[in-house]
Amino acid sequence: MHKINLILCFILMSANILAQNSKKIYGAGNNINAYIGTWVYQSNDTIFKIVFQKGEKITSYGETHGLYGGYYLSVKGEVLENYMGPLPTCWNLKISTTRPDNMYIWAPNSNSYDKSTVPTLGVYFYDKRKKHFNGEGIAGGYIKLLSPKKLLWHLDEKEGIWWEVEGREDTDITKVLPIGFSVPEYAILTKEE
């Protein structure tokens, strides 16, 4: 009887360990709060800022939590882009299929981009000047926490084009030309206090 109890104890402990491993959260997981706030990049005469807040996207499949963002760019003291105003709190595709006008960055908290242990979120960027895909935005970028005060911002237009047109019969990927971005494609930003 003692051996049976011991075997049952080991089986239950193994099942508990396996159950905990299956709950692993990718993306930013529970660390999404670390992204909230204003982030700044400055190089010579260029200032690029991003602001993030929590948001959600509701579809017929369910809810996706993530970050809504805005951005700001000035060069040589002239403000070229300023989309840091109030951001939406919810994007409900059940009510309207159009993106809120005041959402410029969407970073869903999912495991679709990076499986590393360092929190990384894929980014959908709505460039107000370049208007990729007729203003519908472009994927292919990501944000990654380098430390609690440092954030890596990276946009990859070729990857974004691939994500947008791969498998679509109505669009030939060879005919979609890169148009660039109105903001830096790669920057390390510092969190403002």
Secondary structure: elements and pairs:
Elements: H1 2-22, E1 37-43, E2 46-59, E3 62-75, E4 78-83, E5 90-92, E6 105-108, E7 120-125, H2 132-135, E8 138-147, E9 150-154, H3 157-165, E10 186-191
Parallel strand pairs: 2-5
Antiparallel strand pairs: 1-2, 1-10, 2-3, 3-4, 3-6, 6-7, 7-8, 8-9, 9-10
Write a structural description:
This protein is α+β, with helices and mostly antiparallel strands. Helices cover 18% and strands 39% of the residues. It has helices at 2-22, 132-135, 157-165, and strands spanning 37-43, 46-59, 62-75, 78-83, 90-92, 105-108, 120-125, 138-147, 150-154, 186-191. An eight-stranded antiparallel beta barrel has the order 1-2-3-6-7-8-9-10.
Mean pLDDT figure: 82
Apparent shape: globular
Largest sheet: 8 strands, antiparallel, barrel
Number of helices: 3
Short overview:
With 193 residues, the protein is an alpha+beta fold.
Keywords:
about 190 residues, alpha+beta, eight-stranded antiparallel barrel, 3 helices, about 40% strand
